[in-house]
Design brief:
Blueprint: E1 2-7, E2 10-15, H1 22-29, E3 48-51, E4 54-57, E5 70-72, H2 81-92, H3 102-115, H4 121-128, H5 138-153
Parallel strand pairs: 1-5
Antiparallel strand pairs: 1-2, 3-4, 3-5
């Protein structure tokens, strides 16, 4: 069955069953491998993408649920103001260690800053609680989010 979806601003038609997880459509059908498979049960956050700007777990989201909505993946998140600042902060602070979880971490952090330009530690904890980092870079992730928030507050004055 064919499904019309919009990924990173581009309309795409995919011929898959309606219950096919969005993760596999992105990775296997569209060849967009930035979104990672972690647990397959929405527990780790590695597969996080945005659906109409909200972070969702693509491993449990059927492609049929994405019809008529905007899907944004790690491949395009740097085109958004919050995504660009998050990516810059991640690089500046050497946030990733092994890097496997980082696309999901970046997607969740970007969604947080898109809606809250001045998050508290509690806000960060709540937004990032579904993302697991097996290397334990949580302190660098928190500082990356804070640096990105400062960059957004200062416009282009801070990278």
């Amino acid at each position: 069955m064919s499904h019309a979806i919009t990924v990173n601003g581009t309309a795409r038609a995919v011929d898959v069953d309606e219950d096919t997880p969005l993760l596999w459509v992105l990775r296997d059908v569209l060849g967009m491998t930035g979104t990672k498979f972690g647990c397959g049960r929405a527990l780790c956050g590695a597969c996080t993408v945005h659906l109409d700007g909200k972070p969702i777990r693509s491993c449990i989201t059927p492609v049929s649920a994405a019809a008529g909505k905007r899907i944004t993946t790690i491949e395009a998140i740097g085109a958004t103001p919050a995504g660009k600042k998050i990516q810059q902060a991640w690089i500046a602070l050497d946030v990733p260690q092994c890097g496997y979880c980082q696309s999901g971490q970046i997607m969740s952090a970007t969604a947080l800053l898109a809606g809250n330009r001045n998050p508290t530690d509690s806000d960060i904890d709540a937004a990032m609680s579904g993302n697991i980092c097996r290397c334990g870079t949580y302190a660098r992730i928190r500082e990356g989010i804070k640096q990105a928030a400062r960059g957004l507050a200062n416009g282009n004055k801070e990278s």
